[in-house]
Amino acid sequence: MRITNTMITNNTKANINSNKLLVDKYNTQMTTQKKIAKASENPVIAIRSLRLSTTLSHINQYVNNNIPDASAWMDVTETALTNMKDLLTDIRTQCVNGSTDTKNVEDRQTILESLKSLSEQVYAEGNADYAGKTVFTGYRTSSNLTFEEEELETEYQIKQSFDFSDLEEKRYYTGNVIVPEALTDNVYECETKIAEHSYERLRLAYNGKTEIVNFSYTINGVETTPTLSTHESEQAWEDATADFTATPPQNGTKTIGDNEIVYIKETGEFIFGKEIANQLSDGKATFDVEYKKKGFDKGELRPEYYYDCKDITDDDPSKHVEYTKQNQEIHYTIANNTTITINTQADEVFDSNIKRDVDELINVVQKALDASEKVLKIKNMMGEAQYQDNDSQQMLQTYLDAAQKEADYADDNLQKTYEQYIGRFDKYLESTNIAITNAGSLKNSLNLTMTRVENQQMTIEELKSDNEDRDISDIIIDYYASYNAYQSSLTAAGKLGQSSLLDYI
Questions:
Q1: Neighbours of 49 (CB within 10 A)
Q2: What pTM was estimated for this model as a whole?
Q3: Nearest to 173 by CA among 252, 108, 275
Q4: What is the arithmetic mean of pLDDT over 160-179?
Q5: pLDDT for the residue numbered 3
Q6: Integer Cα distance of 379 and 373 in angstroms
């Protein structure tokens, strides 16, 4: 085979170029410390690198965003739940303190003020938020759990369901003493007609201006819509049986027939006669109630988080907003094929009866204080000089006997209410403790997942590095080898360039 000068030149150029490319390649590797600069250099490495980069991107999303976000949300939730537990504990403590027989007027006044302060805070923790998102309101994170301001014109139509276990005893009193400012000819001698009545009741979630749309109960599959005797208030209920034409005017009574059901709009209570109450309990009755509630106070719970309801504030029915109560768990993806529920829903902790119970307790304490004040006022009148005659003393003694009976009833009711509500707040505390425990368990699970994902992150980063990266010492060795080869090829080419025709003759 004849080797021409052109062939020698071309081979020399090829050797120089290949060595130059190797020098450039290793020079780039020294800069980047990567095995390849483009996929064409090694498709296997490139494909593996792409897969590892995608996996690592997902893991980084979990580690840097999802898990920290979920953790912060749960921290806010746990803090709010702990604060709610402390508040409920304070209320229960007031009940325990008040249940002793040794409390004087000053002690009761202190308890009353404490309860009033606690009542204002009952649902405040329900508005806890993380990054502007309310944590207890399910999917509607942009809305507070409670009304932010008093809304007198806002009206909802609400559906509530009960069963026989929701029936509870409630004591009512009639014949309250009205102490005159002075004994005159127009003042009648007070008769001791103070009486206690005990009934079973159902209490709606709201009081105030409530109007019943539908009330029915079901026993053994048979639904009954009873006739209700409706009164605006307890006083109106009592006045309905009063005789104001009598001399002196006769107080009414808060009594109902054995099979009668009374509804009090002001308190949102259904009161059952003894016979119908027994039938409902024995028959394990269920109740369905639909009612309208107009006007909400600041801090009152928004019905849409608890019940099927409709906002009917607007006169135009087409603008009414309907809400359906449903499970609204918020899930975060914290790892591949791993999700966690981060939210606690309002009705799991912030029972709609809590504030009603506190307010009712406040009312009972206030009535006991008022009754004690009546007794003290009459005793003071009996000591005044103008009432030292026998007729005045006799009349005031009658008032005192009645007032003392009222005070005894009020004290007895107060003690029973304290004892009853200790049990109620124990249940609220139990629900809160369960929620705190669940939140803590989820947080522990989240932390374990975080540890596992961080380990995965380190493993993938190592695999990615092994696939893509080269050790700098290896690169330097290869670089100098290729550089020396390049220099040698240049030297050889230079010598070849010095040859002439005479070298081939």
A1: 19
A2: 0.84
A3: 252
A4: 89
A5: 59
A6: 10
